[in-house]
Amino acid sequence: MTREEKSQVIQDLTGKLADNPVIYLADISGLNASDTSNLRRACFKANVKLAVVKNTLLAKAMDSSDKDFGELPNVLKGNTSLMMADTGNAPAKVIKAFRKGKQEKPILKGAYVEQEVYVGDDQLDNLVNIKSKEEVIGDIIGLLQSPAKNVISALQSGGGKIHGILQTLSEK
User: Fold this and answer.
1) What is the Cα–Cα distance from 172 to 169, expressed in whole angstroms?
2) CA 81, CA 67: separation in Å to the nearest integer?
3) What is the sign of the dihedral through the CA atoms of 101, 105, 106 and 111?
């Protein structure tokens, strides 16, 4: 690979790192062709982009990026695959589901999720439990609707009289 080609790859990787809020580093070495194909298919279904990268080029792209990747450049040893997504827990769910089939791989090396850095395969469960923005918004809306439902049910069960409505609300 020429110096110009390496420079172009680093620029492309830097752009991908800038465009994606969720970046996972995983080791998928040792998977046979069928398993690799199944992993790529699972990533596609979960809207996760999977790419095999050279550690040295990825490290240079991380250095030239505006993001602070903390300890992630230190895990760039051996084979590394880059998993990128818009949802923080999507790659973690893909890895966890793929491992249920008695697979030991992919192994999570580290992740960058919404400006937080996670290092090590032991962080996989924490990453799976991260809620997406949509899930958090849904939880907040549910909490906000609860008091309104109480008032509406009090109005309906109170018989339309002020005394009945106040009594129902005070009981709740």
Assistant:
1) 5
2) 19
3) positive
Assign 80 to helix, strand or coil. Answer: strand
Q: Give 149's contacts (C-beta < 8 A, 6+ positions apart).
A: none
**In this structure, what token pair is assigned to residue 17?**
């790192």
* 27-36 residue pLDDT tens: 988 888 999 9
Cα–Cα dist 3/72, whole Å: 25
Cβ count within 10 A of residue 61: 23
Q: Name the pTM for this structure.
A: 0.75
Contact present, 26 and 106 (Cβ < 8 Å): yes
Q: What single-letter amino acid sits at 65? A: S
CA angle, 78 then 102 then 106, to 5°: 25
Report H helices in the chain: 3-19, 33-45, 55-64, 90-99, 124-128, 133-157, 162-171
